[in-house]
Amino acid sequence: MSPPRRPDPPAMQTNDVRVAAAGTAAWAVALVVLLIVGLPPQDRWWLWVCCAGIGIGLFATWYVPRLQAGRARQEAERAARRETPR
């Protein structure tokens, strides 16, 4: 028989927008470094990788607050339904 399982810890609160912005900034720095260093023609695709990373990071910075607001709204609706007697 296995020992009883401990309860899961609560979810860690993070600032996801800050994480997305930091990743976007890191891709921007990488792009600048690659532009300064210069790349041979066969390796220029790395510039597009950096551009894609910046684009995805900007999208995440825009989308994450909306996602979190939607989740909070759903949780509030669930809590309201639980409190309403039938």
Automatic annotation (TrEMBL):
Transmembrane feature ranges: 20-39, 45-64
**Transmembrane helix is among the record's keywords:** yes
Q: Which domain of life is it from?
A: Bacteria
Q: Which UniProt keywords apply?
A: Membrane, Transmembrane, Transmembrane helix
**What name appears for this protein in its UniProt entry?**
Putative lysophospholipase L1 biosynthesis ABC-type transport system permease subunit
